[in-house]
Design a protein that fits this description.
alpha/beta, TIM Barrel, single chain, four-stranded mixed beta sheet, 43% helix, four-stranded parallel beta sheet, 255 residues
Length: 255
Amino acid sequence: MIFITGDVHAKIKDNWEQEAAGSELDNSLKYLEILKKNNLAATLFLNGILLDKETEKVKELLKYNVEIGGHTYNNFDGMNIIKSYIYRKRYGCIYGSESYQKKDIEKTKKAFESIGLKMNSWRTHAFGSNEKTFIILKENGVKYVSDLFDEKPFLKNEIIHMPINIPVDQNTIAYGNLKPENRNPFASCTKGRIKPQEWFEILKQRVEENEKKKTNSIILIHPETMAALDNFELFKKITKFLSKYKSSKISEFKL
């Protein structure tokens, strides 16, 4: 079983992908159309502000075989290196204090409810959560979280964790020339910079290995990254490869 996921953001200051490829919601529709042609399901994690400010466009996503999950309200209201450093030291994660997390998660949940959706699943922006995040999510009815990197799904404190176990596009693909020290064909989920086709080969290898082990593959492929990279040409190849496997949405997983 494969679980294809993507993160969809509101405007991020000085984000080169958005500047190059435009609206993330528009590109998510293109992403879902490609998945539809290959009979693949997906889970897209959206900022709550998108549900409030671009409601009709979000509803267009729901015409496809997709689940919408929470992804913070608005990317922590902005983040920079200094703020990130301070939050990591003070709170152990970049999501901030427990009170801020609670407010943000409740605000995101309210945005879902305003358009008749239940927020069953969640991924914290930049995987910036801590253990308190999971407690707050559980209190707000979220049952599935995909924040971690691990081999396979597991249950902890009534939350089903769906860890990413395939190298992430945004964290692995190199744009432009590669430095010799960054050429790592066994790039982990968070380190190493390799060419797009090399990343695709690793993705195929990992998925095939997971299938042999009867392990679910949880894959994160950003719509905006695929748009900015080559206008979805690589993504079309990926979905053609993945189409031979059964796919599902995050909250359809059963332990």
